[in-house]
Amino acid sequence: MSSKSHFILRVGTDFSGIGAPEQALTQLNVPHVVEFACDFDKFAKQSYLSNYSPNIFYDNVATRDHSSAPEVDLYVGGFPCQTFSIAGKRAGFNDTRGTLFFDLLQYLKLKTPKYFILENVKGLVNHDKGNTYKTIMTCLRELKYTLYAKVLNTKHYGIPQNRERIFIVGFRDEHYFEFPQKINLNYKIKDFLESDVDERFYLKREQIEKLQEYNRRNAEKGNGFRAK
């Protein structure tokens, strides 16, 4: 490019979901092109491709030939969180979903993008007494990236949702970086709820009983997911 003003960011995402990073770049008016995206879930893929047009869409990061994947400037990966979440059994790297981190790592090792953003549940930080997180950070440092990591909560950034996530930001070269400052939350979920609700929207007794049974089964399995 002739100047920085004409720079177009090349982006690649794994575990792309419905395209949150792409939407963020669009809203920030950052000129970019999506070189590739990837998601195993067919419905996520359908939603993603309805809104974005990556040059390549991969169906499975675990079977992809990373050496043939496009090079990018910014790589984003929200690798599967269930295996590290306190709401699950926390099997970590013993669960195949946990080992997908190493597929992500392989891409970083081969293509060395200028920047990356990784995201996971807060529970990743203390999983296995902190050993899992330590392993991940060590692997990333071995690739010679400058790293910044912090647990952020969506409710501190204008979104009416209590959702804590660990963000790991990496720079290939020495770089000064600060996570965004908190902003005031002007609205809460209750601000959008109607006070006068038709009776047909309430749960019937048999539906409540099904949810109670769902909670009982999950409690027996040691699964933290609960209906309220």
How would you describe what is shown here?
Helix content is 29%, strand content 19%. The longest helix is centred in the C-terminal third of the chain and has 17 residues, at 205-221. Mean pLDDT is 86; it is low at 83-88 and 90-98. The protein has helices spanning 20-27, 42-51, 96-111, 123-126, 131-141, 205-221, and strands at 9-14, 32-38, 56-58, 74-77, 115-121, 146-153, 164-171. The N and C termini lie far apart (54 Å). By secondary structure, it is of the alpha/beta class. It has a seven-stranded mixed beta sheet, sandwiched between helices.
Annotate the secondary structure layout.
Blueprint lengths: L8 E6 L5 H8 L4 E7 L3 H10 L4 E3 L15 E4 L18 H16 L3 E7 L1 H4 L4 H11 L4 E8 L10 E8 L33 H17 L7
Parallel strand pairs: 1-2, 1-4, 2-3, 4-5
Antiparallel strand pairs: 5-7, 6-7
Characteristic terms for this protein:
7-stranded mixed sheet; 228 residues; 19% strand; alpha/beta
Number of helices: 6
Instruction: Write down the overall geometry.
Output: globular
Number of strands: 7
What share of residues are in beta strands? Answer: 15-25%
Alpha-carbon Rg, integer: 20 Å
N-to-C terminal Cα separation, in Å? 54 Å
**H/E series, N to C?**
EHEHEEHEHHEEH
Mean pLDDT: 86
- Helical content stands at 25-40%
Strand order of the largest sheet: 3-2-1-4-5-7-6
Question: Would you tell me the structural class of the helices and strands?
Answer: alpha/beta
Taking pLDDT < 50 over at least 5 consecutive residues as the criterion, the unreliable ranges are 83-88, 90-98
Query: What's the multimeric state?
Result: single chain
Major sheet: size, sense and barrel closure? 7 strands, mixed
